[in-house]
Design goal:
binds iron/sulfur cluster, pyruvate-formate lyase- activating enzyme, Rossmann fold, alpha/beta, 13 helices, 3 domains, 20 strands, OB fold (Dihydrolipoamide Acetyltransferase, E2P)
Length: about 450
């Protein structure tokens, strides 16, 4: 099979923020005349936008790179991009011989330059395009979007990088400090997405509640949301992910409650609930603030859907600290809970604590946490039986449609299974007919009945 000149294959791994970078790199290459191919075998340029966050993600990235390097043929170039390369740079080559170019996540916008250099250098040695530590995420490029569309939805990146001190997290090492995109650039992109018929806008960053801090803005996220609802009145849903506890302010809650477009949904990773564990994690340890703020949000937004994430097995986590976490989860009754076992991350502040909790104990705590959360998730889902929801359709097959309600962020929360086939990207009012631990089943309803939502 002949290699097709001027073509590329791009594999995107990791989080939604990486997906946006992958889409932006693809746009830059297409603007240069390159054509995307969905299979690597005939593509001239092979790119893996890697994830380097935690060990399992790194392993997955290495495996994909090894596979492509093994199958690579004369006339093909393999480029490793993204967070793994940013974090480990040239050392990647020790694990994956056969990589031709390395591009750090902070310089995704240099992809065309790297490809050009590889193609124009007769016998190129591996090419490194790694910014130094000081270099932050680059600015927006005119005409290159910082969003990623799928069905009727789009992830819209509002900032990148992070200035928080979380001891277990390598993101600040990889991405550098938070860099917010200019308000006008975000609004302009949101208008374009509205014009393309997007129904749901999902705001993403490592910490959306820190938006605008580096631009000198106070309450940057609340201000941005107010601009957005004025700029894109035809977008039905605006969803906020990755809120940092301690920075969900009264103003933000007020803005969320006062605008129908802004979904009564919040993803606020808490990571733990015992003050001692949180202090060792260098995370906000004022658990009273969490109780008060969640109580306030639920009072002001009675239909609020709350998602959070926890880490179990963090160094020093005692049985009583873990039980305090279980008691907290029982008391707070979150709609959605994600959980991870602690991953030892060299180079982070937690490195000095080592990884003392045995894997089997971590596993067992993970399972005990999910055993506490699953009946809660089911009970909350059961409370929706008979109620109406709007569902954004993501797919349909054999007389069934799959979609998400305001309570479901893509890829991480539940789904709604509806009788009947509805167009992808349409929003269908339904009546909930059944509940499972994470998902709901529903029947479509005539438009007349009122829709369940905050306002
Ligand atoms: S806020 Fe999130 S991305 Fe930032 S350091 Fe903490 S865990 Fe990492």
């Amino acid at each position: 099979m002949k290699i097709q000149q001027g073509t590329f294959y791009l594999l995107s791994l990791g989080c939604a923020k990486n997906t946006v970078d992958s889409d932006s790199m693809a746009q830059l290459l297409m603007a240069e005349g390159y054509r995307p191919l969905s299979a690597p075998s005939r593509a001239e340029v092979l790119i893996v936008n890697t994830c380097g966050f935690i060990a399992p993600a790194r392993e997955e990235s290495i495996q994909h790179l090894r596979t492509l390097a093994r199958k690579k043929r004369q006339g093909q170039w393999l480029i490793a991009a993204g967070c793994l390369t940013q974090r480990y740079g040239k050392h990647i080559l020790e694990q994956v011989p056969g990589i031709d170019g390395i591009l750090g996540t902070r310089r995704w916008m240099d992809i065309v330059q790297v490809v050009r250099q590889l193609r124009n250098t007769p016998h190129p040695q591996p090419l490194y395009h790694l910014p130094d530590e000081a270099q932050t995420i680059g600015p927006d490029l005119p005409g290159i979007s910082r969003s990623s569309r799928f069905g009727g939805s789009a992830y819209l990146k509002i900032a990148d990088g992070c200035r928080r001190p979380c001891a277990f997290c390598a993101i600040p090492l990889i991405k550098g400090p938070a860099v917010s995109r200019p308000v006008e650039s975000i609004l302009e992109e949101a208008r374009q997405l509205q014009a393309q018929g997007v129904r749901e806008l999902i705001l993403i960053a490592q910490d959306t509640t820190d938006y605008g801090h580096d631009l000198g803005m106070k309450e940057g996220l609340a201000t941005l949301l107010e601009h957005l609802v004025r700029a894109v009145p035809e977008i039905d849903w605006i969803r906020v992910l990755y809120a940092y506890p301690g920075h969900v302010t009264d103003r933000l809650i007020e803005v969320m409650a006062n605008h129908r477009q802004i979904l009564p949904y919040l993803d606020m990773p808490l990571q733990h609930a015992h003050p001692d564990t949180l202090r060792r994690m260098r995370r906000p340890a004022n658990i009273e603030w969490v109780y008060r703020t969640i109580e306030k949000m639920r009072r002001i937004m009675p239909n609020l859907a709350l998602r959070t994430t926890f880490i179990v097995g963090y160094p020093g986590e005692t049985e009583s600290e873990f039980n305090a976490l279980l008691d907290f989860v029982r008391a707070m009754r979150f709609d959605r809970v994600g959980a991870f076992t602690f991953s030892f991350e060299p180079g982070t502040a937690s490195e000095a604590l080592g990884d003392p909790i045995p894997p089997e104990v971590k596993r067992e705590r993970y399972e005990r946490l999910m055993e506490v959360q699953q009946p809660i998730s089911l009970e909350i889902n059961q409370s929706f039986i008979g109620k109406r929801l709007d569902v954004l359709i993501e797919g349909h097959e054999k007389g069934i449609s799959i979609g998400r309600s305001y309570r479901d962020a893509p890829e991480i929360d539940g789904l709604v299974i509806i009788e009947g086939e509805f167009p992808v990207g349409s929003i269908v009012p339904v009546q909930v007919s059944g509940a499972m631990t994470y998902d709901l089943s529903a029947v479509p309803l005539p438009q007349s009945l009122p829709v369940l939502q905050a306002l």
